[in-house]
Amino acid sequence: MSTVEHGRTAASPDFSGDLFVTGADWETVEDAVGDNVITVNMGPQHPSTHGVLRLILQLEGETVLSVQPIIGYLHTGIEKNAEFRTWVQGVTFFTRMDYLAPLFNELAYCLAVERLLGIEAPERAQTVRVILTEFNRIASHLVWLATGGMELGAISMMIYGFRERERILDLFESQTGLRMNHAYIRPGGLAADVTDDFIERCESLLQVLPDKMGEYEDLLLKNPIWLERTKGVGILTTEDARNFGVTGPLARAAGLAFDLRKAQPYCGIDQFDFDVPTESAGDSYARFLVRLEEMRQSLRIIRQALDVLPDGPTMVADPHIRWPAQLALGPDGLGNSPEYIRHIMGESMEALINHFKLVTQGFTVPVGQVYEAVESPRGELGYAVVSDGTNRPYRVHVRDPSFVNLQATDHMAGGHTVSDVIAVVASLDPVMGGVDR
């Protein structure tokens, strides 16, 4: 597909000035055309940029000389807002950072808070966390496959991907009350235990999804359009992956067998047997193969986790930390159970006072700073959390993989045609909420 050797050429224009630093600068470009080089503004409102991402393309004919991502159009202020909320309230912010991986953000944040507190969630809570996050990984990869397929002409794949993802969201809704932005994983455990039909619901998905993944392969592995649009496009070598610091499927498709579930296990995931799939081509097609196999490995993990799901509590027993209410699923999602309301309002003044203090003030966390990371669908998702000993974070900084991976865009798209930029961005699978946090 490319007409120029892969990678930026010596003739690539210099973007070192401040012309493209901020938005609303398009009118300041004095001459966008000259010497057969044209500057094209792609986004921030463009259906193939996966959110409000702006790309400044330097083109020579159809050939891409360079790509500069411009971010900041979706700034949420989540990190700053967290400094003004209690530790538990922080979960409701971070779950919204990446709409495709809310449970991973909840988990990484809660692991950091638990480490500062010197506590560990009960074994049952940890196993449920593994099951739900692995389902979340599959759901995220399905959206990637669906949207990527749509952008590259495989419209049927878009329909099938979202169809199976809906079934996983049904599971999430049945357990957390919400299809997205769950705030289900809390410091110390879970907001509530899983329902009685949890295993049955998971088993149903385990029976359906493997056959569906076979359908995806039948649909795409020999599809000439899919192969033409992805093979040899957006190549990232092993050395490139290391130099750019990319992680997740991007790095594994370039031959780097790095996975935090193996290198730095969390929630007891190291007790389960699974493989870390890798490819050597480093192109968009290799990323497709890696993500497809990762979904199968997630099913393998979930199968084993369901077999050993222990009984017991799903929240630490410490009354100074655990959420006092016994939450229950209702028509509006998770809320206080009627029995608990009767208890604090009619039976125990002490219980009412404890409830009031924890809900309004939260708990305090010892002074310290930690970094906890999990293997999210897009790579290493890390939370650097600082506590000054109060009831809210002093600082939370997130290492979001979308932000880090996006810096490789120029290297991956340089030398290809304009249409290949679509395939490159799709294979990056960025979520701009995580980039503009």
List the defining traits of the structure above.
single chain, 437 residues, alpha+beta, 17 helices, 11 strands, 13% strand
Set out the fold topology.
Layout (H helix, E strand, L loop, with lengths): L32 E2 L2 E6 L11 E7 L2 E8 L7 H5 L6 H6 L7 H16 L5 H29 L3 H22 L8 E2 L2 E2 L7 H23 L3 H7 L7 H7 L4 H5 L6 H4 L20 H24 L19 E4 L2 E4 L1 H9 L2 H13 L6 E9 L2 E9 L7 E5 L1 H6 L2 H5 L4 H11 L3 H4 L2
Antiparallel strand pairs: 1-2, 2-3, 3-4, 5-6, 7-8, 9-10, 10-11
Describe this structure in words.
The chain is an alpha+beta fold. The protein is 45% helix and 13% strand. The protein has helices spanning 78-82, 89-94, 102-117, 123-151, 155-176, 198-220, 224-230, 238-244, 249-253, 260-263, 284-307, 338-346, 349-361, 401-406, 409-413, 418-428, 432-435, and strands at residues 33-34, 37-42, 54-60, 63-70, 185-186, 189-190, 327-330, 333-336, 368-376, 379-387, 395-399. The strands form 4 sheets. It has a 4-stranded antiparallel β-sheet. The model is unreliable at 1-13 and 17-21 (pLDDT under 50).
